Amino acid sequence: METPTNTFFFTKIKLAKHDFVEYEASARVRRGEAEVHEITSTHVDKLPHEDLLRAFHRLTVHFCLVTESLNHADFGVETDEALEELIRDDEALECAGLAGFACRGLSWGAKGNGFTLSGRRWLRSGKAVNFNTPFIDEENDDYEFLGLLREAIRTLSKETSLYLNGKFADEPPKVEQLALSFGGGLQDIVDEMHQSSGLSSLTISGGGRSVTLAPRSINGQLLDEDA
Fold first, then answer.
1. What mean pLDDT do residues 180-187 have?
2. How confident is the model at residue 183 (pLDDT cuts 50, 70, 90)?
3. Looking at the DSSP assignment, which residues form a beta bridge with residue 191?
4. What DSSP string runs through 151-216?
5. In this structure, how many other beta carbons lie within 10 angstroms of the beta carbon of residue 84?
6. Where are the domains of the chain?
7. Predicted TM-score (pTM) of this structure
């Protein structure tokens, strides 16, 4: 009996609501001449790392060019060679016209011989129009920057794999809250706050009067209450 050979590959990667990632993948298992396909679809509720978002932004450039939403002039160049250089160096990402578009998804054809980009365009009304590129043949399409597009897709697949293995957005530092027990009197609270955060005094005001409480000890030494 031959040892099974497993192959995992993405068939769809999508940015969902709040930029959470959805993906669909096919696991292909071969045993001798027999081959079994298993499809899995998952939604991950973790914000993606900026590298994954940047990979989608690179696809936005191609999305706009394939759908003829933007042209060479929008990128400030006249030739394919000049635009290719901008795309390769990521300078194309600075194009102001990209602000109105976003590539939000990528899906592969059933035979694995091509792909479709999905995205949206924001209108002046604030509403969005979702649409797809035509199917792009991975080997024979006449898109001028097909090689760069394939490279961008490989980067997206790599970043998605890293995302599924825990490469998420950097979480903001957690603000530690002071845990207080209010079982004792106010003086106990002042002492506890001094020990935990260095509080020097607490003033309580009300009814035109105020009371200031200081900790009963500093650096472990009891203060003279009559001082």
1. 46
2. very low
3. none
4. HHHHHHHHHHHHHHTT-BPPPPPP-PPPP---SS-HHHHHHHHHHHH----EEEEETTEEEEE--S
5. 16
6. 5-164, 186-222
7. 0.70
